[in-house]
Amino acid sequence: MTTTLPLLVTMGDPVGIGPEIVMAAAAAGELRDAVVVGDPAVLRRANGLRPCGQPVAVLEAPVDIAPPGALRVWQPSGLPTGLSALPWGQVSAVAGAAAARCIEAAVAVLQAGQGRAIVTAPLHKEALSAAGVPYPGHTEMLQALATPPDQPPVPVRMMLANPELRVVLATIHVALREAIAALDFDTVLETVRIANAAAKRWGMASPRIAVAGLNPHAGEGGLFGDEEIRFIGPAVQAARREGIDASGPHPPDTVFMRARRGAFDLVVAMTHDHGLIPVKYLGVEEGVNVTLGLPFVRTSPDHGTAFDIAGQGKADPSSLMAALRMARTLAG
């Protein structure tokens, strides 16, 4: 048995850049305390693109020891066969099923007390759908896996963070019309509460949370939309009455600039692209996706499977390595 519980790193979609960046992170020494959850043959194929300089040790259980210097890999039961023969960069139901199975297995390991955090390499939403997985992405799938049977879903939120910005989203992977329709007082207040609780767990005594509006100029007093008046502003005031240092609604075209300059610790954004464009514009190299509200730590790179460059040996592992470092920080 290992003396320290491992980070669990899922391989992601086996025909995307996930296996390659996992091997590149191993070559950089970033997987020394980790176990990769995936198909050893897929990882060996990726090792041909970016040799990690380590032998692959296949474990029977995630907490098993391995020879010094070996990359520890655990293959969960139920993984489809033939994954290493699939063509790079093509949507595949088999690949989607494999990515989902690795996530399910990693969560089960954490819930059994045999790991300390999950770091997920990218999966492909279309491949998940082709495999019949009823979730559009990691966040929704992890939410379902973390929810006890016959209980309401665990409230979770997606945060993207880099050294300059931390942005928490009130809505995520739905059409923009659906996202706007889903917004209400309870959703905004719950998002602020989740962001505040997470930041406090990271050591911020009183995190300064800026809540972005939905409409241009935060509605300009109702001239450009009334969501700010009807429920965003009231949710901010309710949060303040609970002792949370929240402010807003702020105009979304300037609030991220102000946060980057140090005025706020976190920004709550109403929709996916409102919040993620400014973070990703600063560069995906150090960006990390963190799922807030789960009973365990989960981080991931802030980019996708990059099918256009999969199998070419040129994917940048920086965001995955940042996700690994973030997981260690948050999990302790």
What does this structure look like?
The protein folds into two domains: 186 residues, 3-Layer(aba) Sandwich (Isopropylmalate Dehydrogenase); 116 residues, Isopropylmalate Dehydrogenase. The chain is α/β, with parallel strands linked by helices. The relative contact order is 0.16. Helix content is 37%, strand content 15%. It is elongated. The chain contains eleven helices and twelve strands. It starts with 6 loop residues before the first strand and ends with a helix. It has a twelve-stranded mixed beta sheet, sandwiched between helices.
CATH class membership of the largest domain: Alpha Beta
Strand order within the widest beta sheet: 3-4-2-1-5-12-11-6-7-10-8-9
Number of strands: 12
Helix count, per DSSP?
A: 11
**What is the CATH superfamily label of the largest domain?**
Isopropylmalate Dehydrogenase
Structural class category = alpha/beta
Strand content: 15-25%
Low-confidence stretches: none
Order of helices and strands: EHEHEEHEHHEEHHEHEHEHEEH
The total tally of domains equals 2
Amount of helix = 25-40%
Oligomer: single chain
Specify the biggest β-sheet.
Answer: 12 strands, mixed
Q: Can you tell me the overall shape?
A: elongated
Distance between the termini: 19 Å
Summarize model confidence as the mean pLDDT: 94
Question: What gyration radius follows from the Cα positions, in whole Å?
Answer: 20 Å
Concise synopsis of the structure shown:
By secondary structure, this protein is of the alpha/beta class. It is built from eleven helices and twelve strands.
